[in-house]
Amino acid sequence: MLSKVVTVICCLTYVAAEDPPSHLKPFGWGDSTPMEEVQGFLPVKQFFEEYVKPNKPVVMRGANKVWPGFLNWQTDEYFASVAPEEPFIVSMDIKRGTPETPTDFVDFKEFLQKYNTSARRMVEHTPPFLWKDVLVPGSLGCDKMWYGSSYSTSVVHKDAADNINCLVYGIKNYTILSPEYDPHVFLDRPDGLYSTMEVDKVDAHKYPGLDKVKFQHTELHGGDCVFIPYKWIHQVRSYDRNIAVNIWWNHWRNNELDLSNCPTETEEKVINSAKFHGWGDFESRDEGVFEHTHDLLSMAHVIKPVTYPRWVALFTSTTFDVSNLMRS
Ligand SMILES: *[C@@H]1O[C@H](CO)[C@@H](O)[C@H](O)[C@H]1NC(C)=O
Ligand SMILES: *[C@@H]1O[C@H](CO)[C@@H](O)[C@H](O)[C@H]1NC(C)=O
Which residues form the signal peptide (predicted)? Predict the structure, then answer.
């Protein structure tokens, strides 16, 4: 009898001590296929019908080489020459770590002097003096600029919007995951839709579900853009001098767009002449608020699984009682 007990304890210990092959490997290690690719920006109608509406990611090779500022942005001297005389304050985030670290604020010219040796990068709305350099494909929304040097990593996260990231200089490696794998990825900070996992050394015991997912990946070079649909989990590694512009837009507007009159050629506008609704737009829409609440409660396992359309139907009904949906 005693020897049986000893055997069982021995074997349990043995199993627990064996690490899965992915243990302490970078996020994205394992089953991964290259993302779909096209050349340049697609005509707006085709882009929305084939990628945006079906929530399908796509790499657009060489798409931003047509930007008016593409060549100028290859050097720091250009940025220094167009920066205003008076201070222009930009925010600097740390290049590696979690978003909890407080942001620093510096003058843009000072940033240019110190970013090469800094542990921080600039994450800022594209400054107005650079708007003439950036083309917005079609009728898209909000923009932000990332500017940094050497290696940086992002946390594993999702954005509350559809997103195009255009790289002007450097290399970025993207690892993305379809929302169908959400149950296998533990975003332990659902408030910010991100995970505190150590992206270069993932603890496979803490995140065992990652063995069951199919990653997609791509390596972007200066000139390439990538479309990351709403809700796709992604993680980004940036190398060398790295300049990128993000364009986010509210996915709720996708269904309202009348694509029937879109030009068949790609139509692009510099930021100056594009109309932006700003971040307020994301929060001002009822759909956005409903969806955010739904995601928060379901990711925190507070409510029973419920489809989003059903959630909206319940929420807008006068007899809605959320306690019926709560997990006991
Ligand atoms: C920063 O590094 C880039 C090359 O990576 C170089 O072109 C630039 O002049 C450097 N800037 C400063 C202020 O040293
Ligand atoms: C980007 O990731 C691929 C594998 O997905 C790898 O082969 C490549 O070396 C990475 N690029 C850099 C610059 O590390």
Answer: 1-17
Rounded distance between C-alpha atoms, residue 169 and residue 70, angstroms: 9
Distance CA 289, CA 249 (A): 16
End-to-end CA, the chain: 41
Domains belonging to the chain, first-starting first, are: 21-276 (2.60.120.650), 285-328 (no CATH)
What type of residue is 239?
Answer: Y
Report pLDDT for 237. 92
- Residues comprising the chain, all counted: 328
Helix (H) or strand (E) holding 181: none
User: Rounded to whole angstroms, how far apart are CA atoms 32 and 10?
Assistant: 36
Instruction: Identify the sign of the CA torsion 263, 140, 57, 93.
Output: positive
Compute the 3-state secondary structure of the chain and give helix, strand, coil in percent, each to the nearest 5. 35, 25, 40
Which pair of structure tokens corresponds to residue 109? 């010219």
Which alpha helices (DSSP H) does 179-284 contain, by range?
280-284
Query: Residue 246: its pLDDT value, please?
Result: 84
pLDDT in tens, 171-223: 999 999 998 888 887 677 655 567 788 888 998 888 888 888 999 999 999 99
Task: Find the 220 Cα to ligand 2 centroid distance in Å.
Answer: 10
User: Does ligand 2 lie within 6 Å of residue 53's CB atom?
Assistant: no
Instruction: Report the distance separating Cα 194 and Cα 156, nearest Å.
Output: 6
Q: Exposed/middle/buried for 148, CB within 10 Å: 0-12, 13-18, 19+?
A: buried
Residue spans of the chain under pLDDT 50: 1-2, 6-15, 139, 141-142, 277-283
Cβ atoms of 59 and 42 within 8 Å: the answer is no
| Residue 306, ligand 2, Cβ within 6 A | no
Residue 149 CA: which ligand 1 atom is closest? Answer: 5
Ligand 2 atom having least distance to the Cα of 171: 13
Write the pLDDT tens digit of every residue in 212-259: 899 999 999 999 999 999 888 889 999 989 899 888 776 665 666 666
Report the relative pairing of strands 162-177 and 215-221 from DSSP bridges: antiparallel
